[in-house]
Amino acid sequence: MKHYMAVIERCAQTGFYVGYIPGFPGAHSQGANLDELNSNLREVLEMLLGNQRDV
């Protein structure tokens, strides 16, 4: 299993969490809570890495 670091901030205007993965252009997402953001970022990584299961 590979591990990736995400940079996460909370938008003051919407209250949503936004995150991106450094070194992966296009690897960014948002979520209403941290669990949703984590799931969304995993989905983005899977798409960028070609649907590998070790994300």
What would you note in describing this structure?
The structure is a single chain. The protein starts with 6 loop residues before the first strand and ends in a 7-residue tail after the last helix. 27% of the residues lie in helices and 22% in strands. It is elongated. A hairpin with a 6-residue loop joins strand 1 (7-10) and strand 2. Strands 1-2-3 form a 3-stranded antiparallel sheet, covered by helices on one side. The protein is built from 1 helix and 3 strands, in the order E-E-E-H. By secondary structure, the chain is of the alpha+beta class. The model has no long low-confidence stretch (mean pLDDT 91). It has one domain (7-48).
Q: How do the helices and strands line up, and which of them pair or pack?
A:
Elements lengths: L6 E4 L6 E4 L7 E4 L2 H15 L7
Antiparallel strand pairs: 1-2, 2-3
Distance between the termini: 6 Å
The tally of helices reads 1
How many DSSP E strands? Answer: 3
Helical content class: 25-40%
CA-atom Rg in angstroms: 11 Å
Which class best fits the helix and strand makeup?
Answer: alpha+beta
Shape: elongated
Tell me what portion of residues adopts beta-strand conformation. Answer: 15-25%
Name the strands of the widest sheet in spatial order.
Answer: 1-2-3
Number of spatially distinct domains: 1
Rounded mean pLDDT score: 91
Order of SSEs, N→C? EEEH
